[in-house]
Amino acid sequence: MKKIFFTVLGLLIINTVTAQNSQEQSDSLMLRKIYDMSLMQGKSYDWLDHLSNKIGGRLSGSYQAQQAVEYTKAELESLGLNKVWLQPVMVPKWTRGSKEFAYVETSPGTTRTVNITALGGSVATPAGGTKAQVIEVQGIEDLEHYGREQIEGKIVFFNRPMRPDLISTFEAYGGCVDQRYSGAAEAGKYGAAGVIVRSMNLRMDDYPHTGSMIYGSTPVSERIPAAAISTNDAAYLSGILKMNKDLQFYFKQNSEQHEDVQSYNVIGEITGSEYPEEIMVVGGHLDSWDIGDGAHDDGAGVVQSMEVLRLFKEIGYKPKRTLRVVLFMNEENGLRGGNKYAEVAKSKNEKHIFALESDAGGFTPRGFSFDADKAQFAQIQSWKELFKPYLIHYFELGGSGADVGPLKQGDVVLAGLRPDSQRYFDHHHAANDTFEHVNKRELELGAATMASLVYLVDNYGIKRINTDVEEKM
């Protein structure tokens, strides 16, 4: 009897292992098909060419943003999806005006021009510009040390650099971006005449990097102008200040905040063949800053997300679950698109199980970060071996993406594509975030990597959160 039992048990184990091996082989072949299609017959690079070179920078509320809405909607319709639609969303409209100008005056009549750009959301300088002495600080926390007595009437120069010793450039960015985001609001409390911020850039160059900033509760009449200065010119200004604390800094900018205007999220859908009520999302943000053409941030994420659906159509794969591409509007200076999409999804009681965002540039993909519980992450990690032939090794718990973040509730798993980040901040929010700095093959590898993860989520689903398992782990 024992012999029969162990024989049957052995056969069951063999059959189970065989079935597992067969499924792994099937998954491996599917990933190979996805990568082949993206690398050999990809469309993402052509789409990005049009967004970057035919439309250009797509600041929310601008004519170019509306052109991008119309273009991507038409391209999604051409793919033969089940549904394509526009989701209205009110967005802020801020305009830069004529090009900014700045110089350092070391003595009367002796000046040197420097490269600046207005921060997104900043007020303009007075018509004749702003000119004052400069006080250099290393961060917002330094303001209290100097106090109103030393700051009032001066231009505050925030010069804390991104840390070059941090391998994660996003960690380095997070360590100093507060001076850009709220520096003007905080310096204004001490009577500052304006704010100049060292660009969020690890490289020494002449490109100033813009980005969003807020005034918070500061009354309109008390808001001071804020601009970013290039890293080379930040180094120059800091150096010359050590020799001449009485120098004058002049800058002029013509930016203006307008009333909100209507724009749209662009959405396309392949309806699920078995579980249409379970929704998976891939997306990026369609808006960009205006001084470059937004190729890396986030044109790359937009076209990669569109490509995921196109790849499935081309290889004949019919998702079991509903797959949506969402091209979010206004991530850069408001996150209105991401919030609106989540708001509508909640009002319709839609069941999202997974959302993947690409918003870290079109560089070589390294893997993903996940916002998931430990049981869900263990399931996802079981797929990691399938990605190793493509040199995708990074599977970590962590953040996902700003636009998909508002979807976080219940069992939904959020993820972010993680390309190699070492060159990302060379271009982030700068005039050199342009099409020629995106490598076609790297872009296509990213699209295939996203499609591969979506395929696995679709094929196996997402584990429900198990509180007991979570507590034991």
From TrEMBL:
InterPro entries noted in UniProt: CPQ (IPR039866), Peptidase_M28 (IPR007484)
UniProt-listed Gene3D superfamilies: 3.50.30.30, Zn peptidases
Signal peptide from the UniProt entry: 1-19
Locations listed in the record: Endoplasmic reticulum; Golgi apparatus; Lysosome; Secreted
Main location: endoplasmic reticulum
Keywords of the record: Carboxypeptidase, Endoplasmic reticulum, Glycoprotein, Golgi apparatus, Hydrolase, Lysosome, Metal-binding, Metalloprotease, Protease, Secreted, Signal, Zinc, Zymogen
Segments forming domain Peptidase M28: 265-452
Any matching Pfam family: Peptidase_M28
Subunit structure: Homodimer. The monomeric form is inactive while the homodimer is active.
Protein name according to UniProt: Carboxypeptidase Q
